[in-house]
Specification:
Distance between the termini: 57 Å
Number of strands: 4
Largest sheet: 4 strands, mixed
Radius of gyration: 26 Å
Strand order of the largest sheet: 1-2-4-3
Number of domains: 2
Strand content: 5-15%
Shape: elongated
Length: 394
């Protein structure tokens, strides 16, 4: 049996903290809203088949078992959608009860333990929506509303993508806690995803281990099935699996958290550049101070220039576990090169001293592509590039 407790992911906590800082009023308004019926009962009674306990005792027993494992004391109603759709199950969140809707021929393919896993997955969504007085439900509502608005900035859209995937990883853990067995949980996941009646969870876990998942999931609402199986196996081993949500630090597609991180990284790197020997001038300091948000006095950097050719250590957020260091994408490294070049050429009076100093900084920072980028932008001749390079000392 699994001896793991169900807790919100570090990503959940970090996004909640960020949303409360930047959208406190909207978040508070959505948090105060109850999950009302809004005609749901009438729609279900008209268009689905209600799966009552007398006729479907195994399903109701699985639901009770899952609810007990997750610490939920709530009435559960089950419905089957009409038509031959894809096998699926979903939670229709209501304040006073849990409503689980099945679609397609799923129920006939699941045994009692697999049913418990599926019910645990859906009921885990309710756990997340009700914990901390609905704090995470309010974030979910806010991000859903943002995703539906064409005016929404890309950072919110990427946050929404990662958020819903985080919710699925949380729900998968609920499935595992409910049934108590990894193989059963993966088997149920496979049956839902493939529609097959017979699957091999051990083979699927081997398949998952053949992938490099450090680049993150490419899913839009659910991580890939193999990634979900991998995440469950590694969660049991107390490994950090949230790399699936974040991947490398990418300046081209940041979420709200990465956008804040990139601002901090830019400000810190700009401060290092401005304090480098050969680049210390009022003009460079003024330009570097502009990378602060809001722009302000230039701080004195601590420690050595960060290395960008190796995974970057990320600070934990609001008590979350220390995240795994994250690699930088090529686009992010290129952005940092341009930042360095902009500051190196901000003060014409520095002349070659500024360029030579920037080459030194690039070497300390592990930005090996900086020389080529500066050459392309400034149009150095081979002779001039060789002269500048010779002037750089270790």
């Amino acid at each position: 049996m699994v001896e793991k407790s169900l807790g919100v992911l570090g990503y959940h906590r970090a996004v909640l903290s960020q949303v409360r800082r930047v959208d406190e009023r909207a978040w508070a308004a959505l948090r105060d809203g109850d999950a009302r019926d809004d005609g749901l009962s009438d729609v279900l009674l008209r268009n689905t088949y209600r799966l009552e306990a007398e006729s479907h005792p195994e399903l109701h027993a699985a639901g009770r078992r899952a609810a007990e494992a997750l610490g939920l004391g709530v009435e559960i109603e089950f419905f089957q959608a009409q038509g031959a759709g894809q096998p699926n199950a979903s939670l229709l969140h209501q304040g006073d009860r849990a409503v689980i809707l099945f679609e397609g021929p799923l129920l006939e393919r699941l045994d009692a333990d697999e049913l418990t896993a599926v019910c645990g997955h859906e009921l885990a969504h309710r756990v997340l929506w009700t914990v901390e007085d609905g704090a995470y439900l309010a974030v979910d509502r806010l991000l859903d509303a943002a995703a539906a608005d064409a005016r929404t900035p890309a950072q919110y859209l990427e946050t929404h993508r990662r958020w819903v995937m985080a919710c699925e990883l949380f729900a998968d853990r609920g499935a595992l806690v409910a049934c108590g067995d990894l193989g059963t949980t993966v088997r149920a996941l496979l049956k839902v995803q493939t529609g097959l009646g017979s699957v091999d969870p051990t083979a699927y876990l081997r398949q998952a281990n053949e992938l490099d998942l450090s680049t993150g999931s490419r899913g839009t609402s659910h991580p890939e099935g193999v990634a979900r199986a991998w995440a469950l196996q590694n969660w049991l081993a107390d490994e950090d699996v949230e790399v699936l949500l974040t991947g490398p630090l990418d300046v081209d597609s940041p979420d709200l958290l990465d956008a804040a991180l990139l601002r901090e990284l830019s400000m810190d790197f700009a401060a290092h550049i401005a304090h480098a020997e050969g680049l210390r001038s009022d003009t460079v300091a003024t330009y570097a101070a502009g990378f602060a948000d809001p722009p302000g006095p230039l701080g004195v950097p601590g420690g050595a220039v960060p290395r960008f050719d190796e995974p970057l250590a990320i600070r934990p957020v609001d008590g979350a576990p220390i995240p795994r260091p994250r690699a930088l994408t090529g686009a992010t490294r290129q952005y940092l090169c341009y930042l360095l070049l902009d500051l190196a050429t901000a003060d014409p009076e520095l002349g070659d001293d500024g360029l030579i100093a920037s080459l030194r900084v690039a070497r300390r920072a592990g930005l090996s592509e900086y020389d080529d980028l500066a050459d392309d932008e400034l149009g150095w001749s081979d002779k001039r590039r060789a002269e500048l390079t010779r002037a750089v000392t270790p």
